[in-house]
Amino acid sequence: MIEFEGVGHSYDERTVLDGVDLRLSEQRVAFVGANGSGKSTLARMINGLVRPSRGRVLVDGLDVAREGRAVRRRVGFVFTHPDSQIVMPTAGEDVAFSLRKQGLSKAERQQRAVEMLARHGLEGYAEHPAHQLSGGQKQLLALCSMLVLEPDVLVCDEPTTLLDLRNKRHFGEVLAGLEQQVVLVTHDLDLLDGFDRVIVLDQGRVVADDVPDRAVGFYRELIG
Ligand SMILES: Nc1ncnc2c1ncn2[C@@H]1O[C@H](COP(=O)(O)OP(=O)(O)OP(=O)(O)O)[C@@H](O)[C@H]1O
Ligand SMILES: [Mg+2]
């Protein structure tokens, strides 16, 4: 359960989120809205990357501002720009690095990493320099490095911007098949099929909160 209680945010003087009250208990929740409407700011609050200026955010009852470490163990975050998430020289090492605290042997970590990569479109890439992957491959790698940790909640901020049609479809299938809660921010409205709830943000406020069809209809009218 993710709760936003009276959440607002300002960068310097400018208010970019205001009066956000949400209880997200559904398995698949998405946020859509125009550029600059506050989606990334809101998503980043779920694991404490941004601290709300007003109100509070809770994950399973834990206040993100106070118990950030415990929250980050539960919440995985996949960023728009995968470069910010890739920390090791090769793709395999990057996924294995995620597992460093799990008490597995090096060989087990490597094997899990290779399996994970193969499952998500990167078969044979374990030894490949991570920074020499294509943009879309980096997005898949970032997903692998996060999923291998089996977080309770996966927050994805525009995770498919660089993916080709096949990998985008694959990404959608991965999201659909996950047991954990998924919070997706996207401009790609095709990804919303099968979501339980879609929330439309406009100028930092929730302006629609509905099943995908109706929320997307509202968003299309809003954009005009
Ligand atoms: N670190 C920052 N410092 C100052 N202003 C910021 C910062 N990050 C975002 N903003 C501003 O906050 C507002 C909301 O930004 P945010 O990134 O949350 O929007 P978004 O809905 O994710 O947009 P997009 O669809 O373009 O990704 C924008 O006006 C943006 O310029
Ligand atoms: Mg954004």
UniProtKB/TrEMBL annotation:
One of its GO terms (cellular component) is ATP-binding cassette (ABC) transporter complex. Keywords: ATP-binding, Nucleotide-binding, Transport. Belongs to the ABC transporter superfamily. It comes from the Bacteria. SUPFAM superfamilies: P-loop containing nucleoside triphosphate hydrolases. Residues 2-223 form the ABC transporter domain. It comes from Saccharopolyspora dendranthemae. CDD domains: ABC_cobalt_CbiO_domain1. PROSITE patterns: ABC_TRANSPORTER_1, ABC_TRANSPORTER_2. This is Biotin transport system ATP-binding protein. One of its GO terms (molecular function) is ATP binding.
